[in-house]
Please model this.
Amino acid sequence: MALDGMEEIIAAAEGTGRPFWQVVLDTDLEERGVTARDSLEKMRHTWQAMLESVLTYDGQRRSLSGLAGGDGALMDAYAQKGEALCGAYLQRVIATALRVGESNACMRKIVAAPTAGSCGVLPAVLVPLYQAGKASEEMVLQALYTASGIGAVISHRACIAGAAGGCQAEIGSASAMAAGALVSLRGGSPRQIGHAVAMALKNLMGLVCDPVAGLVEVPCIKRNVVGAVNAISCADMALAGIESRVPVDEVIDCMGEVGRRLPVELRETSLGGLAVTPFGKMVKEKMESES
Model:
């Protein structure tokens, strides 16, 4: 079975009594001809790299452009004052998304999930739960299989690259993967995973890709925060029994169609959006003069 439809995975899970993540794992074993141990070790390696991207963050580092760096540390300091509007988990989610996004901009090792530009979303929702002892490594690995299955479906039916479908394809896809992973981790049903994915994608439908000076920094890093927070709200809605009225595969197909209709200026070319504001032009000119 190829991972070309969420409904196909959900039906396989419901028909056999297997959890969503197990269907994805079994498909990986069949398609790559590897053992469960080999597959799990590869996923564990991915998780360890994801965790490392958070733990090795250095708030003193700055990107070559000077546009990125230090915001994760600022969020950490603000959270420690006890004045944040959101709770402890959400504070850590925001800080973690910033940390990983900044690490990417500063040329540190990250996990593209599904892309480098959206690398902060999945770790942002998973690492704080793991660090707080609310999710074991085994639970996280299972959630990552769920996320990878979702990403495979989106990649097959739509796209995951900003150049092909705008930022909705990067942050939107990452948010959908994170939403599904959270539902999986919290024991939600396969169909609830599908609803979480659909809602997360719908909320970010049409998001353009307009990186200032062509760098994966502004507005990309802070959009990782939005993707992570969106994932949490959609996971909670799905776990509460709230459903997406539009079927999940139809939402994914729609996202792909919206991406194809986005003008080229809003698909990672830096020819539109924030990239052509006075500030965006100034940064580009500065970078070109220094190169």
